[in-house]
Each structure stands twice: as structure tokens, then as C-alpha cells.
Design goal:
- The complex is a heterodimer of chains A (about 325) and B (about 375).
- Chain A is about 20% helix and about 25% strand.
- By secondary structure, chain A is an alpha+beta fold.
- In chain A, strands 1, 2, 3, 4, 5, 6, 7, 8, 9, 10, 11, 12, 13 and 14 form a 14-stranded mixed β-sheet that branches.
- Chain A has six helices and 14 strands.
- A four-stranded mixed β-sheet of chain B has the order 12-3-14-13.
- Chain B starts with a strand and ends in a 5-residue tail after the last strand.
- Chain B contains ten helices and 19 strands.
- Chain B is of the alpha+beta class and about 375 residues long.
- Helices cover about 20% and strands about 20% of the residues of chain B.
- Chain B is globular and about 80 Å long.
- The chains are: A alpha+beta (about 325), B alpha+beta (about 375).
- At the A-B interface, helix 6 of A face strand 10 of B.
Chain lengths: ~325, ~375
């Protein structure tokens, strides 16, 4: 999986341009060897140059979709960010703008864009989202936030889309949210203060008293009582089996968990950027060959971005390829 | 932004939500002159509420030595500096509150502590202002001073934590004015941590939510005072209900101390939150410092407190502090006794104005023996 880069620097699509750099390099070699090998040798070297140029065409990346997110059809969905299937899915570079409509706003822009690809099997949609991020932020703390990304779709496909920022009353949106903090937990970081502060010294937790058998029903029930958010089954509190949450909203400030999180996801940090795959059901009323809208948001943890403080997109058209 | 009235600053101010006062408001009076910083209150709270994972660093109640004690570090001076000049025109505040001084894109002027700011809860403990010269001894005037400031959530009338939460996860209970964070709704944005000037909301890294002092509401609902009150060794604390100034009743202990005698003052009223923990200011601290911390009522409050030995009502009510676990809703002085009543008017405590003194003779004539300390 290559790291996300600025679209202007991304690998060009035309073969001639694509191989400009190897061609120039080869010509330099050509000039260097000319004196020694004569004209016959020069012809041979030129053939090598064209061969190199032709070979370069086979490294062409996925196509580009400028105006919309195109979900291509496939019978199976990729589950990882580096699945070869993504080579076929068109890349849409979604420009991000600061959330500056409701307080608290993001006053200083950060992540400029997110590259989006999508594949659907007619029942679910997979999104691959890649963006540059110089810092990997997956540790929660006081004044410390994790990197995150979200995909938003209208809860019902209709010509009249909800307000792009979290929907509106009567026109809810569905959001699938991935967090680097959740991912670290799913990847095996222990649900314990020592996982965050290895040298922490804790005198005593009442629910870990010697009189309680570790892992017993009684012990676990007591531990839960000492974690109020967990007692109330707040999905922020874990325990966590997936790094994503399914959420619904009908306007800013109304975000709440969906009845159940059914989406899947996984994210990896490679070469100064995140790549995240999110797999979620097709939104209500959306089908193969159909159209709807989609929006994205990215949170840069080291920039104190959390909640409403985020980089976001407006609605972007989303087309679903027909079954083949 | 709505316009609301804040009696502590003597004027209307801007607030995120319209004025909606609870049916009654939980309030407290702390007498700073009695506090010995034994931290029994801190431990009472800690063992009752914050023994869980992710709560290790949390002190919903703490006692810090002023001027150099802070938890978290520099919680007050950071904001005082950000807020700029804070002038009083008599009892009217002429500066900006933290709601009025909010920067573009923000709901409240605040700052967000980092984990290191919580690393030294005892910083400045027992440090007094300026060094003490070698050979210095008390000559009648305290040139060097410090005092202990016990702090819990102020369960403000206009809470900054509540106004800053973009998803309405923080709420003020209409029945008693206690401010709570809904642990089922909070998503751990820490906006409340940034906004609360008193830094009494805390982020729990293990549950991904922010938590705060709950004023021991399960006890309040039973008519009992919170844990940090009833475990106080120095008997410095008194919990009850406060009325608006125009509705103040002299037989309500909190009203009497705050509105009638005006001996107990809010902490940093200029921030604009109308906090509901009131402090009897320390008498050994320079006026300017106290003016900044407790507002323009400081001179009258100090004079009234110094005069307490001659004021039987005030001295009498102060003896009710720490005398019962129950909330004293009404009180009266009956000659040399002070009586506390519950909500229903039932007598719950009776305390003499002065404890009777008994002098035991060194020699027991009946037994014909000299008394020792244990006989």
C-alpha cells in the first residue's frame, strides 16, 4: 500500500508522462556510454529506454474519479487496506474544509484532503480512506486525542438530501466512525492504565481485592460498577471488538449510537498517513446502479481535533456500479 | 447567546442558554479559616467515588495551599491571565465573563490542561508567599501568608461545562441544581474540561468519557450531606440550599451566611458562572489577593467574621457546621442554643453556643487520690 500524497504529486496516468523520469535517467546513461559503444550501441540503448518506458505502464495506479465517488461492483469485498482489489477502484480526492458552522468550530485548517475509494457487492459497501498525517495519535489522555475518520450517508436515499453537516431534524444521517484509539485497543492494547502509563503505581482497586476471584461473575460485575460509562453501555467505554461505531444523527449535537454497530473496519498507519477500510451496509433505499450522497470527516488528534472540531467535506455524489 | 441575570456580578450577562433556575439549588459554605488541609475530605471522596480504572488521578475534591498550590497546575492563574483586566464598579462587575470573552469559534474562554498538569496535586503545599527570614518570628502581623482552599465542583447556576458540551451530555438537575455528566451520552470530547474554570471535570482514559463531582446526590436525595462534608475533621463545611437574593430567608442557614450576613463569598465570581460553593475568606491574607479571588464583598465579609464572637447569631450558626450528617434546611438560635431542623421542620440537632466547661480537680477528695490523665 503506497502512502497517500498530494494529488498533484500522485503518480500520473499517461504512459508517456508516467515514465518520464526513467526515460530521462536512461538518456543520461545513453549520453555517458555513447563515446564507448558507437551508433550501434546507441540504437540498442534506445531500445532499452523504450522497453523501460513500456514496462512502466504496467505500474499504473487506480483510475481517478474527479467529480464523484464511484463504488465499483464486485462479488466480494476487500477487508484490508492493501487488498489488490483496490487497484481497480477509482480514487476520488475529497477536499476537506474546517467545520466552521457550529461552535466549537475548527478555526485552523489541517488535513487538506482524503483519498476515497469504494467497492460494493450489492449488500455492503467498502470504503478505503487514505490521508496524510505526520503524527500517529492513538493514545487517549488529558488534552490528547486520537486520529479518526468517518463516512456519512443519508439514512434514506431521497432527491432531497439532509443538511450535509450531521443531517437535520426529520432527515437523519448514518455515520460510520473509525478511531485510531479504538484500533489500538482492537490490536491488543490492554484495557488498563499500565498500557498507557507503564510506570503507573496503583495502590488498590476495590474490584481486584484478593477476596474476589479474578474473572468471576461477581468480580466482573463489581468492576463494571466502578466504570460508570461502561455500566450504562456507552460504546465509548468498550470493551471493544471492532474499531468502528455505527452512529446516527439528525443535526449537530444529536449524534447517538445506532441500535447496533454492524460495520467493520481496520486502519493502518504507514509512511506518514492513515489508510482505513470501512465496510458498512448499503444505506436504506440505495441499490446497485443507484445514486446517493456521501460525506467524510477527518480528525487530526495532534491538532486537538475531536467532536465538532474536525475537517469535513460537503455532500459528494456517490454512484454505485451495476452488477456485472 | 441568551441574556441572563447573575446576581454575583450585579448585572446581566451573555450565556449559551436562557436562564432556567432549578426548583432549589444545592449550595455550600466552606470556612477557610478552619481548614487544616488534612485531606480527609479528599480521601472521603476518593474512596467513595473514584477508585476505578482511569480515575486514579482524579480528585473531585482537593485542598490546595494558596497562593502556590494548584490542581491542576495553574488552574486559576492561567485563566485570570487569559481573561485580562477584571474591574469592579462597586458590586457590579465591569470586565468580561468567560462567556463574554469567548474567542471566535468557541462557546467559552478556557484552556485545556495536559496530563503533566495533573502530576503534582500537592504542589505548593504549605509554601507561603515570599521566603521566611532566618530568625523571623511572629510579631503580630503576618507578612508571610498562605491559606488552604478546599475545592469541589461549584454546581454553578451557569455552568461552563454544561454550556460548552456540543452534545448536551452535561445537565443541571431541575430538582436540586446538581450538575452531572450523563455517562451514557458523553463522548469524551473534553470540551467541559477545557471550559470549566475551576477544572472540576476530568477525562477518564479507560471509559473514554469525562466525569465530575456529583455532590453525592444519592445522599442528597436522602437528606444527607455529601461525604467530603461529613468527614471533615475541621468541621469547615455546611451543605444546604440557596435562594436568589430577593427570596433570601434568614432561617435558611446558607441564605443567612451568604445573603443576610454576606460573610461567605463565591470563588472567582468574575468568571460569571454564579458558583454555589461560598467561602468565608481567610482573615490573614492581603485584601488585594482576596478581592481578586472572592470579589468586592471581601471587606464586609472579613469585618463580619472578625466580629463573630460578638454576634451570637453568626457564631451560633457556625457551631452547626459539622454537627450532623443531615442537611439543615432551617435553623434558629434559642438563647444559648442553636437548633437545626430538617425540610419537614423536625428538629435534628441542638448545639450549645458555647460548650460547657468542666474543670476536674487534680485531687479526688472522695477517693483520696491524685488524678492522672487516665484516672
Amino acid at each position: 500500500m503506497s502512502s497517500p500524497t498530494d494529488p498533484t504529486e500522485r503518480e500520473p496516468r499517461s504512459c508517456a508522462i508516467l515514465n518520464l523520469r526513467p526515460t530521462i535517467s536512461a538518456l543520461k546513461i545513453l549520453h555517458f556510454v555513447q563515446d564507448d559503444i558507437g551508433n550501434a550501441g546507441l540504437l540498442l540503448a534506445a531500445a532499452v529506454v523504450f522497453a523501460l518506458a513500456f514496462a512502466g505502464c504496467s505500474k499504473q495506479g487506480p483510475p481517478i474519479s474527479e467529480a464523484e465517488v464511484k463504488a465499483i461492483f464486485d462479488k466480494t469485498l476487500p477487508s484490508t487496506v492493501d487488498d489488490a482489489m483496490w487497484e481497480r477502484a477509482p480514487v476520488h480526492t475529497a477536499k476537506l474544509i474546517p467545520q466552521d458552522m457550529v461552535e466549537p468550530r475548527l478555526m485552523r485548517a489541517s488535513t487538506p484532503f482524503v483519498n476515497v475509494q469504494s467497492i460494493t457487492d450489492g449488500r455492503q459497501m467498502a470504503f478505503r480512506l487514505s490521508w496524510s498525517d505526520a503524527t500517529m495519535d492513538d493514545i487517549p489522555g488529558q488534552g490528547r486525542f486520537g486520529d479518526a475518520v468517518a463516512v456519512q450517508l443519508p439514512a434514506t436515499t431521497a432527491p432531497d438530501a439532509p443538511a450535509p453537516q450531521m443531517g437535520e431534524e426529520g432527515k437523519p444521517v448514518e455515520i460510520t466512525y473509525w478511531s485510531a484509539v479504538f484500533q489500538a485497543a482492537v490490536n491488543g492494547r490492554k484495557d488498563d492504565i499500565h498500557a498507557l502509563y507503564p510506570r503507573a503505581k496503583v495502590d488498590h482497586y476495590p474490584f481486584e481485592a484478593p477476596s474476589l476471584k479474578p474473572g468471576s461473575t461477581e468480580q466482573q460485575a463489581m468492576a463494571k460498577r466502578y466504570a460508570p460509562a461502561r455500566s450504562l453501555e456507552n460504546p465509548m467505554a468498550g470493551p471493544r471488538t471492532v474499531p468502528v461505531q455505527d452512529l446516527v444523527a439528525a443535526g449537530p449535537g444529536t449524534l447517538q449510537p445506532a441500535e447496533k454497530t454492524v460495520s467493520l473496519g481496520s486502519g493502518t498507519y504507514v509512511k506518514s498517513g492513515w489508510s482505513v477500510v470501512l465496510i458498512r451496509p448499503l444505506p436504506n433505499g440505495t441499490q446497485l446502479g443507484g445514486r446517493t450522497q456521501v460525506a467524510f470527516a477527518v480528525w487530526e488528534g495532534s491538532h486537538q481535533e475531536v467532536g465538532a472540531r474536525k475537517m469535513r467535506t460537503p455532500w459528494i455524489p456517490l454512484t454505485l456500479e451495476s452488477a456485472r | 447567546m441568551a441574556r441572563v441575570y447573575n446576581w454575583q456580578i450585579g448585572r446581566e450577562m451573555s450565556y449559551w442558554y436562557p436562564e432556567t433556575r432549578p426548583k432549589r439549588q444545592f449550595a455550600a459554605v466552606f470556612d477557610t479559616n478552619k481548614c487544616i488541609a488534612c485531606q480527609t475530605c479528599t480521601l472521603a471522596c476518593k474512596t467513595t467515588w473514584t477508585s476505578g480504572k482511569g480515575q486514579e488521578y482524579m480528585l473531585w475534591n482537593n485542598v490546595e495551599t494558596k497562593p502556590y498550590g494548584f490542581y491542576p497546575l495553574a488552574w486559576d492563574v492561567n485563566l485570570l491571565e487569559k481573561l485580562g483586566p477584571q474591574s469592579w464598579e462597586g458590586r457590579r462587575y465591569g470586565g468580561r465573563t468567560i462567556f463574554e470573552a469567548a474567542e471566535a469559534g468557541e462557546r467559552v474562554l478556557g484552556w485545556r490542561p495536559e496530563e503533566m498538569d495533573y502530576s503534582n496535586p500537592n504542589v505548593g503545599e504549605d509554601d507561603c508567599l515570599n521566603g521566611v527570614e532566618k530568625g523571623a518570628h511572629f510579631t503580630g502581623v503576618h507578612n508571610s501568608w498562605f491559606f488552604y482552599l478546599a475545592r469541589i465542583c461549584n454546581h454553578c447556576t451557569y455552568p461552563a461545562c454544561l454550556s460548552s458540551c456540543p452534545r448536551g451530555a452535561t445537565y443541571k438537575r431541575p430538582e436540586d441544581g446538581i450538575v452531572l455528566i450523563d455517562q451514557g451520552r458523553c463522548r469524551g470530547y473534553q470540551e467541559c474540561v477545557k471550559a470549566c474554570p475551576y477544572k472540576k471535570t476530568f477525562y477518564n482514559t479507560m471509559t473514554g468519557t469525562s466525569e465530575k463531582c456529583i455532590a453525592c446526590f444519592p445522599k442528597i436525595e436522602l437528606g444527607l450531606q455529601p461525604q467530603c462534608f461529613v468527614n471533615c475533621i475541621g468541621k469547615i463545611r455546611f451543605a444546604g440550599w440557596i435562594s436568589k437574593p430577593e427570596n433570601a430567608r434568614a432561617d435558611n442557614p446558607i441564605d443567612f451566611l451568604v445573603h443576610v450576613k454576606k460573610v461567605a463569598l463565591p470563588l472567582f465570581p468574575q468568571f460569571g458562572l454564579e458558583p454555589n460553593v461560598y467561602y468565608i475568606p481567610p482573615i490573614n491574607v492581603p485584601r488585594e489577593y482576596l478581592l481578586q479571588m472572592f470579589g468586592p464583598g471581601i471587606d464586609a465579609a472579613l469585618e463580619t467574621y472578625r466580629n463573630a464572637p460578638k454576634d451570637k447569631d453568626l457564631a451560633g450558626l457556625l457551631t452547626l457546621f459539622g454537627s450532623t450528617e443531615q442537611i439543615v434546611a432551617k435553623w434558629k438560635r434559642a438563647d444559648e442554643q442553636v437548633v437545626g431542623y430538617d425540610e419537614g421542620g423536625r428538629e435534628i440537632v441542638r448545639v450549645p453556643l458555647r460548650e460547657p466547661t468542666h474543670i476536674r480537680q487534680a485531687f479526688d477528695t472522695k477517693q483520696g487520690v491524685a488524678r492522672g490523665n487516665i484516672s
